[in-house]
Amino acid sequence: MSDPFVVVQEDVVSAFEQAKTLYASWKGLNSKKRSPQEENEYQFVTDELYSTLTSISNDLEDLQETVDVARDAPADYGLSAAQIGERHNFIAGRRKTIEDMRHFLAQPDAKTSQPAKAPFSGAPHHHTDARGSHRPHAAEFDGHQEQHQILMQQQDEQFDAMLDTVRNLHGIAGTMNTELDDQAILLDEVGTLVDRIQTKLASARRKVDKFLRESNGRSICIVLAMFAAILVLLMLIIFT
Q1: Mean pLDDT value across the chain
Q2: In angstroms, rounded to a whole number, what is the distance separating the alpha carbons of residues 198 and 117?
Q3: Bridge partners of 129?
Q4: Half-sphere exposure of residue 67, counting CA atoms within 13 Å on the CB side?
Q5: How far apart are CA 196 and CA 185, in angstroms?
Q6: Which residues of 137-162 are buried (b: 16+ CB within 10 A; e: fewer)?
Q7: How far, CA to CA in Å, does 53 sit from each of 25, 82, 119, 138, 146?
Q8: pLDDT at 134
Q9: In this predicted model, what pLDDT tens digit does every residue of 43-76 receive, in sequence order?
């Protein structure tokens, strides 16, 4: 059976490679004056990067829970204290990288040829003051988190519905199995009864055959005896 930590860890490593690619694109766009087309690309890359970092953070929370559970009794899970430490360091290192990325994402971006667009439709624009221009990344991040929570809740509801369906199917299968077992017992009893009836019929047939054979032999003896008596009477009549 696969180690759940290793499976999720592989997903985290893969997601980090994607985040690094997005972060490199974001840095390149953020450090220069952007055209309208590049501004749209910048908005898209920013949204994708925030979404990827949020997904990784949630996976790291799941990994941390497994480490916390196994830390008290690592031997029960086939782990050593050193392996627990390595897993903890992996989580801590990835969290630090995410914090650094988010810190840079929150920094003011370079001036663009047009005013920056809000990450989501209808989101309020932040105006520039004497201390500099600030993009509404915090609001964007909160929006991503809220959307992710709604999606997770919907998935949980779907999983619960699927689990109920599986339980119902399991119950139906159990009932059908019980009925099949009962029918198999009845068939065995019917087979036994048929065998007994066939045995009794065979015995009765043998008795009937024997009776018929004995009856035919007696009839011949009676006929011969009558024939002999008739002959004796004729001879007496003739010779007297």
Answers
A1: 76
A2: 93
A3: 132
A4: 21
A5: 17
A6: beebbebbeeeeeeeeeeeeeeeeee
A7: 15, 28, 16, 13, 14
A8: 37
A9: 999 999 999 999 999 999 988 988 888 888 888 8
